[in-house]
Amino acid sequence: MLVSTVSPVYFWLVVLIACLVIEAVTTQLVTLWFAAGSIGALLAANAGLGWAGQLGIFLVLSFVLLLLLRPLLRSVLRPRQDKTNADRILGQKAVVIQAIDNRNGTGQIRLMGQVWTARSIQNEEIAEGETVVVREISGVKAMVERCDENGGN
Question: What stretches of 27-126 show up as alpha helix (H) in DSSP?
Fold first, then answer.
């Protein structure tokens, strides 16, 4: 049997290195905890604990660290996303400054002092000077619909 011919310290050292290499390639914060578990098992092997004890320490330490620390570390290492505040224009009224025509890919609105490329949600042409409401954002385009004459949406 291979396990009985290999020194337990070397076995856990190989497991440690393999886990670290896999973690470096995948960066999913999973095998990192098994690497930590293998360090615990390596220390147990060095202290003379049997294979069953080493395996128990490896499994318990790995899963406890995985369950407790992975969510915390992922939240700390999560890439920060810059908020553009583009969603603040949703539901806002704007004035069409270039006629909106989805077929020709034209249309612009002025909203909060900014000019936005605009497209009609209903796929209708909207003339320059009309008031529209921004319903959604698609990429860098404001998706709009015509306001009714009573000032409602």
Answer: 31-46, 51-77
